[in-house]
Amino acid sequence: MLGICRGRRKFLAASLTVLFVPAITWIYLFAGSFEDGKPVSLSPLESQAHSPRYTASSQRERESLEERMREVEEENRVLRKQLSLAQSRSPSHHHGNHSKTYSMEEGTGDSESLRAGIVAGNSSECGQQPAVEKCETIHVAIVCAGYNASRDVVTLVKSVLFHRRNPLHFHLIADAIAKQILATLFQTWMVPAVRIDFYDADELKSEVSWIPNKHYSGIYGLMKLVLTKTLPSKLERVIVLDTDITFATDIAELWAVFHKFKGQQVLGLVENQSDWYLGNLWKNHRPWPALGRGYNTGVILLLLDKLRKMKWEQMWRLTAERELMSMLSTSLADQDIFNAVIKQNPFLVYQLPCFWNVQLSDHTRSEQCYRDVSDLKVIHWNSPKKLRVKNKHVEFFRNLYLTFLEYDGNLLRRELFGCPSETDVNSENLQKQLSELDEDDLCYEFRRERFTVHRTHLYFLHYEYEPASDNTDVTLVAQLSMDRLQMLEAICKHWEGPISLALYLSDAEAQQFLRYAQGSEVLMSRHNVGYHIVYKEGQFYPVNLLRNVAMKHISTPYMFLSDIDFLPMYGLYEYLRKSVIQLDLANTKKALIVPAFETLRYRLSFPKSKAELLSMLDMGTLFTFRYHVWTKGHAPTNFAKWRTATTPYRVEWEADFEPYVVVRKDCPEYDRRFVGFGWNKVAHIMELDAQEYEFTVLPNAYMIHMPHAPSFDITKFRSNKQYRICLKTLKEEFQQDMSRHYGFAALKYLTAENNS
């Protein structure tokens, strides 16, 4: 509101200037014409004839005053003219912008009119811009493909959600990768009054694949051309955005501009702010045809209903075919074709003020789009350099972008009061489950965590996986938080197979992780590691939710359920693949146990064989895992037998058993009621046993736990009596659930617990 009405304040200031400057000038001159209380004529001749005190100096002073008076009058004349122009530049006086001369609000012809356009654009909108209805849905279309673009979309959406006051409907033209990532993200984000629809970008490839394109966006950079055909026929208008856009204002302001379209105007665009289409960037530079400087398609307002009536599909196809005969390919993807169409049909375009698309590529005139950074509405990082682009105010732009990049997305789950939301079955079920909990229960927070929906961003980094031809592949599954990040490189060096990791991070920590990973040669050389971000919410570490997320998104038939603090032995990946075949894991319900050891040394010469490990055990360099604090957790592995074993051997389940196992991907999930420290793995192994999994110890496999500072959750467990009481209560409830589910066979778990 303040930004829109800034023009009104400028108008009032200018009006006051026109009224008061002449008055002050004449008072000054009139006062200066009295000497000793007597009036003095301003005429030099009259003064010379009647004033004995006339001197050459007083003559020069009066001449100077007369000159200043003429200057003030000239300034006032210019001010009146500018005010008259500003008053006449209301939306009702626009006649389009298809000529080479543009109104100040609409755009630019040169740098001076560009600067003037800011003032005129801002001032004319106050009180005249049609209001968007309070609960009117704003439609936004975005083309998104791949892992990196999916991350960019999140930042764009955050900036839109931060400022918005209206329901939003996002239309995402996405490939299979982006759809999987963004569908999960929005489903778990659960933002009120936001609807998401997906359109298969891969099905649209045939529509534009005939167009050669040199732009880094590839074939997806051409898909905005087919939106009239792709989006629902009943959809009349839509705002189309590139993924590298950041909003600095309410998107409803841009939606309101549709009301300014007149006649045959169907495209709202901002003038291109580089010299690209002028063809003077380098010798023999030959761009596609464009009207003047051309238009940038990072932000587009599309009147879909009118475009369809104009046969837009036929229009752009004929234009593209004709131009490609000489141009051979596009350089700027859809932007070249949009501009070629506009060149032939300038009446189609309504030129938006340039603050709706401040383009931060090198050598642009973006700095002429604003007098103050508060004038900005949309920032467009349309250079391949992105945040490293050159601009006088790039630090401000970068900080604004980083603000949304690291902004806690959970805070954007706010209701739009007074606007009815569509019925969400998942949300209703969640509210029902939460309402059934007793808030006076001392373990309420523990129980509530089970139903908390954590925002989840799958495949945060690029992921590639080629399935093994023999169908024996194994994925290492683990979860971690920021304080275990240093383990990633070591694990990647020890395990060459696919890895699925769930990381529990805040939005800011996710960006720290991204920078860490991108700066690591080891991590960047590995494309078969899936990093899935589960965003922080609540006071507990949701360890079993994290494990389930990592388990659910593996691409192999088998998985090794590990923890981030363990380093697998060198060659374990290949050894497990052979064991899968040897023990017929595909056709039997087995859980293959990898014996766990630990060291108290931060620097360890990692054993390269079982013989070397046994030697280190005897020397006291290594120990069986948790032998000194929690013997029961791994005692059934029977380490004494393992020392001499040469073939796999079977062991029986015992109370509190929690080995690390290799299982088929269809094994049961971890129980989410267990959060933080305690019983999270024990409960899972108990359920495997209840489902009659056979526990088999591998004789030539091992893993070693590396030392680290105690986690926050184990500290709470040790220091908080209520924490331990609630954990005991949850254990008892889990055992009761097991009895109800598995019947008589589950009674042994109650007996074993009582005897332990």
CATH fold-level assignment of the largest domain? Spore Coat Polysaccharide Biosynthesis Protein SpsA, Chain A
N-C termini distance: 68 Å
How many whole angstroms does the radius of gyration measure?
Answer: 35 Å
Q: Per CATH, which architecture of the largest domain?
A: Alpha-Beta Complex
Structural class: alpha/beta
Describe the structure.
Helix content is 40%, strand content 15%. The protein is α/β, with parallel strands linked by helices. The protein has 2 domains: 138-407, Spore Coat Polysaccharide Biosynthesis Protein SpsA, Chain A (Alpha-Beta Complex), CATH 3.90.550.10; 456-751, Alpha-Beta Complex (Spore Coat Polysaccharide Biosynthesis Protein SpsA, Chain A), CATH 3.90.550.10. Helix 1 (6-32) crosses helix 4 (111-125) and helix 5 (146-163) packs parallel to helix 6.
List keywords for this structure.
alpha/beta, Spore Coat Polysaccharide Biosynthesis Protein SpsA, Chain A, 2 domains, 7-stranded mixed beta sheet, 26 helices, disordered N terminus
Task: Note the topology.
Blueprint: H1 6-32, E1 34-35, E2 38-39, H2 44-50, H3 56-88, H4 111-125, E3 138-144, H5 146-163, E4 168-174, H6 176-189, E5 194-200, H7 201-208, H8 227-230, E6 237-241, E7 245-247, H9 251-256, E8 267-271, E9 295-303, H10 304-309, H11 312-327, H12 334-344, E10 349-352, E11 358-359, E12 378-380, H13 394-405, H14 425-435, H15 444-449, E13 456-457, E14 474-481, H16 487-494, E15 499-505, H17 507-518, H18 521-524, E16 529-535, H19 543-552, E17 558-561, E18 566-568, H20 572-582, E19 590-594, E20 596-598, H21 610-619, E21 623-624, H22 639-644, E22 649-651, E23 660-664, H23 680-690, E24 694-697, E25 703-705, H24 712-719, H25 721-742, H26 747-755
Parallel strand pairs: 3-4, 3-6, 4-5, 8-10, 11-12, 14-15, 14-17, 15-16, 19-24, 20-25
Antiparallel strand pairs: 1-2, 6-9, 7-12, 8-9, 13-16, 17-23, 18-25, 19-23, 20-21, 22-24
